[in-house]
Amino acid sequence: MSIDENNGGQKSEAGAKIKKTSWILWSVPVTLVIILFILIPVIQSKMIKAGAGKPVYVLSQGYGKVENIFVKTGDLVEPGRELCSLMATEKDGSIPPSDSTEAAIEVTVKTVAGKPFDDVVELPGVITAYTESNLSAQISGKILEFSIKEGDYVKKGDIIVKIDKRDYQIAFNRAGAELEFAKSEFNRSEQLLKSNAINLSNHESKKNDYLIKQAAYENVKTSLERCEITAPFDGIVDKKFSEAGEIASPGMRLAKLIDISKVKVNVGIPEKDIAHVRKLKHIKFIVPSLDNKEFAGEFKNIVMSMIDVAKAYPLIIEVDNSSMELLPGMIVKAKIVRASYQNAVLLPIFSVIPGDDEYYTFVMNSGRAQKRVLKIGSFQDRNVHILDGLKPGDTLIDKGNKLVADGSKVKVIN
Question: Which domains does the chain have, with CATH numbers?
């Protein structure tokens, strides 16, 4: 065998040994990975089982401020569930200087200003007549005259309806004659009694007859008077329910009369606003159907019976209506001033950010966004009254307020 053949054989043997060694070196880590992949869940499962029924404490790895807690006591969580968010801070709670490479968020800012503000609540209401009366027949008979029309103005005492009185006039005349005769007989009986010409029993009979005839006369007289129905007050004929020629009967409605020289405004007031209203002497309101013209009326009273459907109490406002502009049935919007402020903070609605259980916004503080939780009051137009959380002079982040978070680096571009 030659030297070359020996060398070739040695090289082949060496190569085989190298390949074998490489395969062993490569297979060892793979095997370890496979083993760990199989064992880790088993170990975790055993750890969980070993800790079942016992609290497991999650420890912070540094200083920080808890921003949000995403679970509550008793919630069931699974592996990978986010429990809370933590912002890293210094030991004293201050935010550490950020990496100079942090990108600043571009925002616009404006200074919060205070101004006078009336906390006004607008409540719907309806106008009603100051006085109204249904005119009804109290006797039976044919309606002879009923010439007024709906919308006519009448004065107190004006005749509205005439009912045929001929039968009542005859009865009245007869009752009058019978009364005169009974009176004459009673007077003669008294004279005879004084001279003992008749006994007391006969005298009492004459007396009773006289009293009966007197009552009958008054009854017929009243019926005769009821043949003419007059206006009980100055007002307007709102509705007619009958016409001339019809037969009237007791209780039959003939017309409705209303007085609108003054009117009432009936407004539903929520329970929480009653205390504010009691302090008022005058209340303003607008009438949409009159181009939102504003009127003012006098606060009269609050009816103590709640309107069940609206969960509100009727508030009565009395208004002069000599111009006759206000008509029953018109809808109004009453303006109730609950409180007045001299230096109130008002924000546009879009500057207030709604959270899960809070409202907030952001101000700029030392080049960074700072979250402010807000206590809000009433909404008016497109603004909201801020009761707490902002004060005049604060630098409010305007545009870009929904792009920042508490502590974000910001750059003012206005």
Answer: 105-112+352-412 (2.40.420.20), 123-129+256-339 (2.40.30.170), 139-254 (1.10.287.470)
Question: Which structure tokens are listed for 56?
Answer: 């497991």
Q: Are strands 359-365 and 84-88 parallel, antiparallel or unpaired?
A: unpaired
- The span from the CA of 369 to the CA of 408, in Å, is 5
Return the residue matching tokens 């920080």. Answer: 64
| Confidence grade of residue 410 (pLDDT, cut at 50, 70, 90) | very high
pLDDT digits (tens, 9 = 90+) for 52-73: 566 777 777 778 888 778 778 8
- Give CB contacts under 8 A, 24+ apart, made by 366-370: 367/104, 367/409, 367/410, 368/95, 368/407, 368/408, 368/409, 368/410, 369/105, 369/107, 369/397, 369/404, 369/405, 369/406, 369/407, 369/408, 369/410, 370/406, 370/407
Residue 63: the pLDDT is 81
Q: Return the H-helix or E-strand segment holding 110.
A: strand 109-111
Give the separation between CA 33 and CA 27, rounded to whole angstroms: 10
Three state DSSP letters for 143-203: EEECCCCCCCEECCCCEEEEECCHHHHHHHHHHHHHHHHHHHHHHHHHHHHHCCCCCHHHH
Give one word for 239, left, alpha or beta, with left for phi > 0 and alpha for psi -120 to 50: beta
Q: Is the pLDDT of residue 215 over 90?
A: yes
Parallel, antiparallel, or unpaired: how do β-strands 410-412 and 353-354 relate?
unpaired
Buried b (16+ CB within 10 A) or exposed e, 382-398: ebbbbeebbeeebebbb
Dist. CA 84–CA 148, nearest whole Å: 81
Compute CA distances 232 → 83, 89, 149, whole Å: 78, 84, 17
CA diameter of the chain: 195
In single-letter form, the type of residue at position 68 comes to: N
CB-CB neighbours of 147 under 10 Å: 11
Q: How many Å apart are CA 278 and CA 40, to the nearest integer?
A: 74
